Amino acid sequence: MKSTTYKPVLRELFPLSVETVKNVVEDVSENEGVLIDEKSLVDYQFEPDLNIILGSILPGLVDIVVYQTLAEAYASEHSARMFAMKNAGDNATTILDSLMLSYNHARQDGITKELSEIVAGAEALSVN
Fold this sequence. Notes:
Blueprint: H1 18-32, H2 50-127
């Protein structure tokens, strides 16, 4: 029987740090197939003010991170259910095969016993 392990991942969302943004960017880039290098994450001067930009972007970032977390949890749940059902099906097939083999042995034993009785009866009749 196969087994699997699900490991929870801890992602820090608040307080927002450069590392948190890097992790989100790396997660998104891995999922989208985009390569992000360290040079693209250097400090820039923003206009208008950085606080205004972050104030408009952060709610969307939070929504995306929370949505991604919920989507991954939902997918993980379905994966676990599919894995459990596959194991149950495999176990049922194994039990069915074992029972079929036992049934065939019992049937063959019955046939052999009947043939032995028929042969013994025929020999008894031919002796007389």
